[in-house]
Design a protein that fits this description.
The structure holds 2 protein chains of 2 kinds.
Chain A: E1 2-6, E2 9-11, E3 33-35, H1 37-53, E4 56-63, H2 67-77, E5 81-86, H3 93-107, E6 111-115, H4 126-134, E7 138-148, E8 151-158, E9 161-168, E10 171-175, H5 187-195, E11 198-201, E12 210-216, E13 225-228, H6 234-244
Parallel strand pairs in A: 1-4, 1-6, 4-5, 5-11, 6-10, 7-10
Antiparallel strand pairs in A: 2-3, 7-8, 8-9
Helix pairs in contact in A: 2-5, 3-4
Chain B: E1 2-6, E2 9-10, E3 13-14, H1 16-30, E4 35-42, E5 59-64, H2 73-87, E6 91-95, H3 98-110, E7 114-119, E8 121-125, E9 128-135, E10 140-146, E11 151-155, E12 171-174, E13 187-193, E14 205-209, H4 219-229, E15 232-235, H5 237-241, E16 262-266, H6 272-278, E17 283-288, H7 295-298, E18 301-304, H8 307-321
Parallel strand pairs in B: 1-4, 1-6, 4-5, 5-12, 6-11, 7-11, 14-15, 14-16, 16-17, 17-18
Antiparallel strand pairs in B: 2-3, 8-9, 9-10
Helix pairs in contact in B: 2-3, 4-8
The chains are: A alpha/beta, B alpha/beta.
The structure holds flavin-adenine dinucleotide and adenosine monophosphate.
């Protein structure tokens, strides 16, 4: 089975985000970057598919040199090969998806795994976009995956339940927390990853269709009201919710 | 100028987000003279379609097929894109629900369109449509503009309020798309419903508990308050990871993003990853015994005190207030 996993390199969720002077991007200085947390589930699933069905796992990232760190992490976990589609420009989901789809097509992937969403741009779009560009099915927000004789059975999270989706390979799957428990790279894996080469490629960029006009911090919330320090404050709290906020 | 609004239904009932999306389309239309067209997909959904009229739908296009009784990513994408093209819609709006988020990116590709996902505001500026969307889990807001001919947006649930107007009468028309059976290759075989629970992603009120509850057995106190308020039960990751509560209740960065009208956080410290999932709630109440807990920085109202003392009192008083 030809398995491809797409990994993004994102600021860690604890990081304080500052804006650049242009007001259209974030200031990357001093920011700690990590593999996108959902993409760890995708890498883990890729490795398990390989262990079960044979084949090989290629991890791919589109971005600048720093993305190599995330690719190394995927190698340390066990990916066979890592490819950087080297590109330093800010890209929208369509543009990223186009480059990833072109590469996956060349590899003739049977399954392409993604995270549910990048925790920086919060788009949750690149996976299904790649599928559409390749004309293959996609199942998003997946918490359980079974593949047998080309048939795919995936369980995805929806409001108030789970959908059991049936489709066939080749397929795009986006991973949600709960799909698996990502392994920690072993020391041996980490050492091996250091010596594995990361192939660099020049993607042919597609123009952005979404343009950032401005970024700003959300309006700061006015200080809330501390209604009291014990159960005697309860009637006043309910009065405020009922009469002032009008939410009860 | 034409705006196409995708009205989501499940089991032949419109979701609340359907009305939100149609209302948002209507608002955009009012300030630009655009026409609002809705599209509804399903099996025998014609009879429910007219109810979109009061929210501002001028025309409603209904695509009916027994095969559409369950969601199919590929078939839905093909049909909605076909309708958008046939209508020459400039703007296509979806809800940012599980279905909408799954569908919109595929439709965008079919239309060669840019996609702005999970928007919390839409407005015209110099006859251009600007969308505001939270990024970095709400730590930053970004205003974006789409340059492609077709423009696709998904709208965060519970943020755009549905407004029923005195409303004109909508015309309902059927449409038979040109798609092949192959498009139904991906389909939902069954839906496993969480037993009668209100989902946090859809709830108007959420009562969430964290590690301050000390153990799974004490979530009874949260459930009782939730029952009185007609609320969903939510949880922090700490208690989900500890196995006290199921993952589908988790609110936050690796859980669900919610924006209810009222969010009550009990024994939750308010870590940045938790705030990421709930800070766009309209009203936030915090109950925590540590006055310095970060949750108080986003709370509208707070009680600094012991949850075990406050929760039973709150449940009892709320019962009185609501006459239950
Ligand atoms: C990548 C990543 C993703 C994450 N995603 C999420 C996520 O999606 N959702 C999420 O919630 N977290 C998430 N977290 C975890 C987050 O950082 C916190 O660890 C977690 O939210 C803490 O949960 P808590 O508030 O229940 O527990 P704690 O932080 O332990 O807080 C317990 C609170 O209860 C209060 N308390 C104790 N006793 C009482 C009492 N008797 N009465 C009243 N108050 C009391 C304490 O003062 C304290 O403030 C994530 C972390 C990472 C690194
Ligand atoms: N630059 C990128 N390189 C590789 N994969 C990416 C990139 N951006 C997004 N992805 C993948 O697409 C998923 C969804 O991302 P997004 O649509 O940006 O929220 C991520 O979890 C990754 O698997």
């Amino acid at each position: 089975m030809k398995i491809v996993v797409c990994v993004n390199h994102v600021p860690d969720s604890e990081t304080k985000i500052k804006l650049s002077p242009d007001g259209k991007s974030i200031d990357r200085t001093g920011v700690n970057f990590i593999i996108n947390p959902y993409d760890e589930f995708a890498v883990e699933e890729a490795l398990r598919l390989k262990e079960k069905h044979g084949g090989d796992v290629t991890s791919v990232s589109l971005g600048g040199d720093p993305h190599k760190e995330t690719l190394r992490k995927s190698l340390a976990m066990g990916a066979d090969k890592a490819v950087l589609l080297k590109d330093d420009a800010p890209r929208d989901t369509f543009s990223v998806a186009r480059a990833l789809a072109d590469y996956a097509k060349e590899l003739q992937a049977d399954i392409i795994l993604f995270g549910k969403q990048s925790i920086d741009s919060d788009d949750a779009a690149v996976g299904p976009m790649v599928a559409e560009m390749l004309g293959i099915p996609s199942v998003t927000v997946v918490v359980k995956l079974e593949i047998k004789d080309g048939a795919v059975l995936a369980e995805r999270e929806i409001e108030g339940g789970h959908e059991h989706v049936e489709t066939r390979l080749p397929v795009v799957v986006t991973a949600q927390k709960g799909l698996n428990d990502p392994r920690y790279p072993s020391l041996k894996g980490i050492m091996a990853a250091k010596s594995k080469p990361i192939e660099e490629r020049k993607p042919s960029p597609a123009a952005n269709k979404v343009e950032v006009v401005a970024m700003h911090k959300p309006a700061a919330k006015a200080a809330g009201k501390i209604v009291g320090t014990d159960a005697t404050a309860v009637p006043e709290l309910l009065r405020l919710l009922h009469e002032e906020a009008k939410v009860l | 100028m034409k705006i196409l609004a995708f009205a989501e239904q499940r089991e032949n009932k419109f979701r609340k987000t359907a009305f939100e999306v149609v209302t948002a389309a209507k608002k955009l239309a009012e300030s630009s003279g655009a026409e609002v067209v809705c599209v509804v997909l399903g099996d025998r959904v014609k009879s429910i379609a007219p109810s979109l009229g009061v929210y501002g739908a001028g025309r409603i296009i209904v695509v009916e097929d027994p095969k559409l009784s369950q969601y199919s990513t590929t078939a839905y994408a093909a049909i909605v894109a076909e309708v958008a093209k046939k209508e020459g819609a400039d703007v296509v709006l979806f809800p940012a629900t599980a279905l909408g988020k799954d569908l919109a990116p595929r439709v965008a590709v079919k239309l060669d369109a840019g996609l702005a996902a999970d928007c919390t505001a839409l407005r015209w500026e110099n006859s251009e449509l600007l969308a505001t969307r939270p990024i970095f889990a709400g730590k930053i807001m970004t205003d974006v503009r789409i340059s492609s001919k077709y423009k696709v947006f998904t709208l965060r649930p519970n943020v755009f309020t549905a407004v029923a107007g005195s409303g004109g009468v909508a015309t309902v028309e059927g449409y038979t798309p040109q798609i092949g059976d192959g498009e139904y290759g991906t389909r939902v075989r069954e839906i496993a419903q969480s037993s009668g629970k209100i989902d946090v992603a859809e709830a108007d009120i959420i009562v969430s508990g964290g590690r301050g509850l000390k153990g799974p057995e004490h979530f009874k106190l949260i459930e009782e308050l939730a029952a009185v308020l007609g609320a969903a039960v939510g949880a922090s990751r700490a208690v989900v990871d500890a196995g006290w509560r199921p993952h589908d209740e988790q609110v936050g960065q690796t859980g669900k993003t919610v924006s209810p009208t009222l969010y009550i956080a009990v024994g939750i410290s308010g870590a940045i990853q938790h705030l990421a999932g709930m800070s766009s709630s309209k009203y936030i109440v915090a109950i925590n015994k540590d006055k310095d807990a970060p949750i108080f920085q986003v709370a509208d109202y707070g009680i600094v005190g012991d949850a075990f003392e406050i929760l039973p009192a709150l449940t009892q008083e709320a019962r009185k207030l609501l006459g239950k």
